[in-house]
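Input chain follows. Return structure tokens only.
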Amino acid sequence: MNNRQIQAMETKQLIIDTAAKLMAESGFHEWKVEDLTNACGVAKGTFYHYFKSKEDVVAVIAMLPFDELKEELKKKTGTLLPELLRFYIAEFARLIERFGLGLTKQWLKSASAPQTESEKKSKLEFDMGCIRMILTDAIKKGELSEQIPVETLTIQITAQIYGMLMLWCLSDGKISMSANLKQYSDYLITAVLRPYFSQSK
């Protein structure tokens, strides 16, 4: 990698980091691209070289912690399924709550009517991929029967998680996403998945 490529990567990261800081300080709607470029000390054209819109950079920021969560899941090779599912669901809720209601509502709006390339990279597919990975790895390790309907359960688990996310947003945070998803993860393991646990486990 040459110096120009390194500088380009550093500039893009500076824009991402500064946008994240602006959102943490004032939410999504209270700043403009010009505010961001002024804070970074770069021209507006530089921003548009990397991102098509403010929503585009927000979509990138929203995905970064979930990319890290997926990598963390991959490292937990020795973790048993119940603990791994509880970890994933709890971390999902924690990350969403950390973003706050404003950014989460903006993400839901963008996700339901994607305008930019980053928005079109579906977080729904990403999240379903994580759940599918957890279930298929449990089959490979012999924790779950090969008869388990992986795709059906992936959709059902995702629906429960996203449903709680919506309730959290619609109630303006009055309904606790993390507390209710903790209860759901216990129910998922003790009731929904119980028939599929391998007899040897």
